[in-house]
Amino acid sequence: MSARPTGVLVMAYGTPSTRDDVAAYYTRIRHGRPPTPELLADLVRRYDAIGGTSPLAQRTAAQVSALAAALEASEPGRFDVRFGSKYEPPLIEDTARALREDGVTTVIGLALAPHSSSMSTAQYMARAREALGDEVTLIAIDAWWDVPGFLDLIAARVRDALATIDAPRRGDAEVLFSAHSLPERILEDGDTYPDQLRESAREVASRAGLARWDVAWQSAGRTADAWLGPDILSVLRDKRAAGVRDLVSCPIGFVADHLEVLFDIDVEAQGVAREIGLNLVRTASLNDDPALIAVLADVVRGAS
Fold first, then answer.
1. N or C terminus: which one in the chain shows less Cβ crowding within 10 Å?
2. Are residues 238 and 139 in the same domain?
3. Do 176 and 68 have their domain in common?
4. Are residues 70 and 174 in the same domain?
5. 161 and 124 assigned to the same domain
6. Same domain? 215 vs 160
7. What separation, in Å, do the N-terminal and C-terminal C-alpha atoms of the chain show?
8. Looking at residue 143, what is its pLDDT?
9. HSE of 32 in the Cβ direction (CA atoms, 13 Å)?
10. If you write DSSP's letter for every residue of 79-127 in order, what string do you get?
């Protein structure tokens, strides 16, 4: 083992820690442009609907802490695990610079998102690489949805959700897999993000023995760009019109309790479901499930 540990920079989008932090957070998302009062009020309304703030910061901290413990237990002293966020302190750049200043010469970059894209995870890696500088080697982990164990874990969550549906109707239930939408312009350069969603959904469907399943996109941004679709809210209406009475939402693109899960699925999508007479249930978020942490630890060790 080398004298210096290998850095592990765990990265995620981030979330405001308190209700008072929402404006600054939204301003960073908008690259320094403060949101209009209307946009800010809408985002605050969403946080208020799930209790004022998102539990994501705590969920992410638990994931990072558990990953650090798992790696330390298997190889004491080999890894230095730290967290950096895209839009909320500690920022990716600050954590990367701290690793460099502490003498770490190799850093493994891991985004807490199973699918990769030029407009999401690739941006995390680019920001980390720039902050680390030429003297530090960044080993960037790409998509990890297809590593051993992850899809089995999702399939188990799907089976658990299906089990909550009345047995006589369970066989006719459908499972809808979703991930965060991105602007359609990512397709111009051959971004494989949509293909990753479809393939991961197909693999989970096979493992769970699903007869009826589909994919949708959710949480599109409020911009003039065209975003990947179909949107989950439209799909819910289409499924009900086609006769579906019971549907399991599996937000496979998220590994923790994001606003995009707790509001966009549990509040907004559920509101549509009630309106159209659709029984909508959701798979439980992974959060710091030891099985997920074991998968992530294997991913890090495999990259080192």
1. N
2. no
3. no
4. no
5. no
6. yes
7. 12
8. 98
9. 0
10. EEEEEEESSSSSBHHHHHHHHHHTT--EEEEEES-SS--TTTHHHHHHH
- Residue 1 has what pLDDT? 45
Give the pLDDT of residue 222: 84
Residue 185 near residue 260, CB atoms below 8 Å: no
In angstroms, the CA 62 to CA 40 distance is 28
Domain carrying residue 154:
150-282
All residues at 6 or more sequence positions from 227 whose CB lies less than 8 Å from its CB, including other chains: 181, 182, 183, 184, 217, 220, 221
Domain co-membership, 97 together with 207: no
Would you say residue 1 lies in a domain?
A: no
- Tokens standing for residue 209: 């023995």
| C-beta contacts of 50-54 below 8 A and 24+ residues apart | 50/259, 50/262, 50/263, 50/266, 50/267, 52/19, 53/15, 53/16, 53/17, 53/18, 53/19, 54/15, 54/16, 54/257, 54/258, 54/259, 54/262
Cα–Cα distances in angstroms (integers) from residue 23 to residues 45, 54, 258, in the given order = 12, 14, 18
CB 77 within 8 A of CB 1: yes
> What's the domain count of the chain?
2
pLDDT at res. 223: 87
Burial class for 58, CB neighbours closer than 10 Å (0-12, 13-18, 19+)? middle
Q: Are residues 299 and 217 in the same domain?
A: no
Residues of the chain scoring pLDDT < 70? 1-2
Same domain, 157 and 263: yes
Question: What single-letter amino acid sits at 216?
Answer: A
CATH assignment of the domain containing 175: 3.40.50.1400
The verdict on residue 157 lying in a domain is yes
